[in-house]
Design a protein that fits this description.
Largest sheet: 7 strands, mixed
Order of helices and strands: HEEEHEHEEEHHHHEHEHHEHEEE
Strand content: 15-25%
Bound molecules: adenosine-5'-diphosphate, magnesium ion
Number of strands: 13
Oligomer: single chain
Helix content: 25-40%
Structural class: alpha+beta
């Protein structure tokens, strides 16, 4: 979820309505395209023993980041993570990167170098190789666009469309930390009483500035054949679960009490009169994975997962489409899952 605060709406309507319109207008069938628009990456059938994943992400100053509250290193780091996370959501291995930047007159060479330093800090653990890009001047803020390729075994990628009724729904890590960290950077939160332990503040800011891409977790799911569907959490659990369910033609039930919320996020919510569950449901840019495990594989999944360092939490299950997306708050009590998560062009807050 981008960090900007503009309430303006745009004449292009909803982001996803626009993408569908453009898809209908411009997408063409091709024998090498296994998956085009609609998933975390496209999947190209480039050879018989290895398929190519490709994804791109654009970050705009004032919308996705603010140099007044983020260092250039952190902006670069987060930009790389956004792309790495899309490869992770497919269960793939990141490979090659292209970087396009549009630089405003206010930006120095040193700042751009710091941007690249942060980017490569995120990418180097995966031995991603920078192979090109483009450079332009900008008259309205800094723009940064990364294109990342990856590889995956043929037919092994985790798709948004792979969820089936009865599957268990899991997430990696904890939810809402990045949102809480972002809130701590805004004037509203700063104006409130500073009741949060410094260690919690540091943790939440770090989760916002330097999130993790769950590449190893995605690859592990593929290796053991345990994943049904997967998506990475960039817009927030509610919104991304909706995308997964739409692509799979199913509904879902989330158990409110099972959402993994960190002690720091809980303390932040308490100190600022916020509901930590809501932050967990709606907060964006956690870059955790949301995935499903078929019911018949759940036992095997739990057994194998217990021998790893990964943090997986079961947060609900996949239900028939007619039941929609629901939140179970206590035994027997369900309500429709609120539709709010980040949406470009139509900002609720
Ligand atoms: P993510 O959050 O994983 O980056 P998005 O929700 O941004 O994915 O995009 C959903 C799908 O729409 C992806 O397949 C993406 O490649 C595609 N898409 C987004 N914007 C455009 C565009 N302007 N033109 C064509 N395809 C697009
Ligand atoms: Mg994604």
């Amino acid at each position: 979820m981008p960090s900007g605060r503009s309430r303006r709406t745009s004449s292009v309507g909803s982001e996803f309505g626009l993408i569908r319109l453009l898809q209908a207008q411009a997408a063409r069938p091709d024998r090498q395209v296994f998956k085009g628009i609609g998933d975390d990456t496209a999947i190209l059938k480039t050879s018989s023993d290895q398929w190519t994943l490709i994804t791109t992400d654009l970050l705009a100053e004032g919308v996705h980041f603010d140099p007044a509250t983020s260092s250039y290193d952190d902006i670069g780091y987060r930009a790389a993570i956004a792309n790495l996370s899309d490869i992770a959501a497919m269960g793939g291995t990141p490979r090659f990167m292209l970087v396009a930047i549009a630089i405003p007159p206010t930006c120095s060479t040193e700042q751009i170098q710091r941007l690249y330093r942060g980017m490569m800090q995120a990418a180097d653990p995966y031995r991603v190789c920078l192979v090109g890009g483009d450079t332009s001047a900008s008259k309205s803020g800094l723009f940064l666009s990364i294109t990342l390729t990856g590889i995956v075994q043929p037919r092994h990628a985790l798709l948004r469309s792979g969820a089936r009724v009865g599957d268990r729904l899991y997430v990696t890590g904890t939810l809402g930390d990045s949102r809480a960290g972002l809130d701590l950077l805004t004037a509203t939160a700063r104006a409130g009483p500073a009741k949060l332990r410094p260690a919690y503040t540091r943790f939440l800011l770090a989760r916002h500035h330097r999130p993790s891409a769950r590449v190893a977790e995605g690859q592990w799911l593929v290796k053991h054949g345990l994943g049904g569907a997967a998506i990475d959490l960039s817009d927030g659990l509610t919104g991304d679960l909706r995308h997964l369910c739409e692509e799979s033609g199913v509904g879902a039930e989330v158990l409110a009490g099972s959402l993994p919320i960190s002690p720091a996020c809980r303390a932040y919510a308490l100190a600022h009169g916020r509901d930590s569950q809501q932050i967990g449901l709606q907060g964006g840019e956690d870059y955790e994975l949301l995935f499903t495990v078929p019911r018949r594989k759940q036992e095997q999944f739990e057994r194998l997962a217990a021998n790893t360092d990964f943090c997986f939490t079961c947060i609900g299950s996949i239900t028939p489409k007619r039941l929609g997306l629901r939140l179970r708050t206590e035994p027997g009590t369900t309500q429709p899952l609120p539709a709010t998560s980040y949406e470009h062009f139509l900002r609720p807050s």
